Here is the input.
Amino acid sequence: MTPLLTFATAMPAYGEYVYPAYLVAVAVLGVLLIASLRRRARARREAQSLPTRGDST
Amino acid sequence: MHRFANPNRFLRLARAVFPWAVGATVALLGTGLYYALFASPPDYQQGETVRIMYVHVPSAWMAMFVYAAIAVASASALIWKHPLADIFARAASPIGAAFTLLALVTGSLWGKPMWGAWWVWDARLTSVLILFFLYLGHMALLNAFDDPARGQRAAAILALVGVVNLPVIKFSVDWWNTLHQPASVVRMGGPSIHPDMLTPLLLMAAGFTAYFVVTVIVRIEAEILARRVRAHRLMQGG
Here is the structure.
């Protein structure tokens, strides 16, 4: 927590609108990327559970 | 294009490109953020608030670029029945919607200190809002039918019809009186923006493009695997 606070207090003051714009960008793109990775991981799990060709079960 | 119609061949290529795209995203966004937040100067009129430009403008560019790519893929799916085109359109649509939302929200955060209003029903803002609704409509249509092929066809037609909105967005600042500033990078006579500001802007735009490549590869792979599982279950059920 302390390094984060040190970093936050060391950031230049740009008024009340600049950082929220960057935070929104990080949040939107971050959530989309994580959701996509989770979706791929689920799809990989399901595909791996399929019987391979020649498997009679 | 048809060389990559085979999903297995595409997946092999995508898996080779993926680590490079991740590296490029990290490097470009890291450098771009450094320039945008620390190394670029404030604007002589807008002061520090100009730094919002480095996320707002690349988001708006990507919103339009992704929509154009979806339209090309949709045309390819309708005309040539390219199997990966539908998958690409489905994978790219939420990413384009995210970029459009980002352009709208960051534009609003920029508009408040500069214009004194979060939102105005200006031609540029309204046409970008319509683009956001087109993305939502595209995603809704893809999932609106029991038969996925019908949903893909309806969504592809919507994507093609919606292309008419792209030149409206681009030229809205020239055709109508608007609060939004005119083009300062992609314009006749070259960019009118100072290189100190153009550098972070282009770095962030390249970073957003690399992010798009990473995310779309992940989503395409997920969709190909999900279709494989669905097809297998249908065969088992039938």
Observations:
- Chain B has a mean pLDDT of 89.
- The first helix of chain B runs from residue 7 to 39.
